[in-house]
Each structure stands twice: as structure tokens, then as C-alpha cells.
Specification:
This protein is mostly helical. The protein is built from 14 helices and no strands.
Amino acid sequence: MREYKTKSRTIFNIINIIIMILLVSTMILPLVNTFALAFSTDYNSMEPGIILFPNPISISGFITLFSEIKILRPFINNVFVTVVGVSLHISICSLTAYVVARHQFPGKKIFMVFVMITLMVPLQNIMIPMYLLYKELNLINTLWAIILTNMVNAYTILLLKNFFEGVPPSLGEAAYIEGANEMQMLMKIYLPLAKAGLATMILFDFVNRWNHYMEALLFIQDPDKYTLQLALMGLVIDSDGASPVSFITNNVQMAGVVFSIMPLLILYPFLQKYFISGIMLGSTKG
């Protein structure tokens, strides 16, 4: 009987490993193929099939991307939208979470109910009202329309609120007796102790803003204000064009994709440990 159970467990583990390998392959192979195409020659990148290693290695796709496509301007716009947007998002949500976690004020429960309601309304459902509002404020065709979208997020407020509530009140009381004001307590006590949650939300918001698409498509029409996602969409549309003048080869398209994801690949290893611990702590405290 024991031998039968051991054999069954071995078969079960083998099946699990095979399924895991297949699942990982569906995520890894497209990424490897993207990098291989990006470093292929114009001719080789147009051959049918999946390429896992470029032969010969070429950077002609990147040269075309920077010399003819002018990808640098959308990249700078994307950096501006992401850096300013994440900074404002974390600052405003941290201040809100700190006040909610530490202080009692009239209407606090009603305020939290409205915060929770926003979790149930997808951003796509309020795009049209936002467009009309931004139009009245003359924000259409400006990068601020993208930055202001999702500036305040209920999930970020709730996660940081949980972290702040986990800080012993005696620390804040001791700092208050020493003469620290609210801003000093937030900056020197609460935020450093919530760095795992901050890193998690910075990474989430950074990825979300870096990969934004619907906001740029709806609010931006001026090509000088295009961000990376609109520029990449232009690469795909031009590659389907009938005119040979505007034809874009696959290595140029994939070079654009590689260029757009490089900041995420560089940032993720530094924030990975905070990302995992922040998710775990936020879920258990919530």
C-alpha cells in the first residue's frame, strides 16, 4: 500500500512539473522570441517561425528605431508621466492613509465608504466623464491628463493605512512629546516603517503608468505628446501599411518593445523583495 502511494505521488509530481514547464514556456518563449527578433537583421526578422537566437546578431532595428522612428520623444514623455505621476500618487495617498490611520474626524466612516466604493468602479467605466471634465479644464492633449488619471487610488490608501496602523502608537506619542509635528512624524517614523508597502505601491503604480495606453489614446492627439505605448501602436500600424515607404520590419517593432520594457526589467530586481513582502503583509493585515 505504501509503495502504491509513493508511486502515485511520483506520477503526480511529474505531471505537475510538466504542467509548470508548459506554463512557464508560454511566458518565457514570447519574451525570448522578442529579444531574438530585436537583435536580428531586417531580412532574418521577416522569416516565418519562432526565433530563439539571432544569427547573425544585428542592432539595425535599434538604429532604425532611433534614427527614423524618433522614439526618444515618446520615451521622455513616458518618463515624465511616470515619475511625476508616481510621486504625486504616493504623496497624496500616504498623507490620506496617515490621517485615516491616526486621527478621528467627523464623517470618517462615510469617507471610508466612498473610498471603498471606488474599488468597485473600473477606470474604463468613467473614461467618458473624465474626458468631458478634462475638456472643461483644458487638459485634453496635455500630459497632465494622463498624470491626473488614477492619481488617488483606494487600494493604495487602504494598504498604507494598514501599515500605519501597525506602528505602535507609543512611537508617535514619544515623538509628539519631543516636539515633532505631524509632518515630521510621518516622514521620520511612519514612512520608514512602511517602506515595504511603499515599495510595493511604487512598483505597482510605476508599471501601471509606464504601460498606460487607454489614457494616452483618449486624451492625446498631438504627435509631440505621444507616449511610448502610442508610438509602439504606430509601429504596428505602419508595419501593416501597403506603402513600402512606411513599411516597418519585425526587428524594428521588437526593438521598440525591448526598449520600452528595459526600465521595468532594470527596476524590478531592486524592488522584488519589498514587492513580495509588501503583498504578504498587506494581505494579512487587511
